[in-house]
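re: that chain from earlier
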Amino acid sequence: MSFPFKNDRDQAKDFLYGYILTALADPEASAGWRQLNGEIGIKVTDLDIGFTLQCSPDKVEASHGYPEKPETGLLLSSDTFHKLFTGKGNPMIEFAMGRIKTAGDMGAVLKIVGFLPQNVKVYQQYLSDKGLA
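^ sequence. v structure.
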């Protein structure tokens, strides 16, 4: 299962940022991110695209760029991201196989795994809305 914009970094960046904003606007998906109460970095390694989420109980804000030293970081390929967020991948297997690297707070990483299903629903709908389902 391949990420739809592997050959166009700019399109991939816009697509992923749009998904993040869509997930953060969804009450169920954003509830998990708000509970983290810290800075989360997400880096899509093969495309060299990064995002930062500033999470607090009140809101989550997203910006472009992977933080220099995130409190919690997830580093994964575009295909691994796509596989996880379409619900086709098992996060624990991806960690065990080294397809997801982490930085910082492992407790927060485990919380992210716990609320992944809500984000999968949003990603699947986002793909469908973009004609990519």
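Strands lie at 39-44, 49-55, 60-64, 72-76, 100-104.
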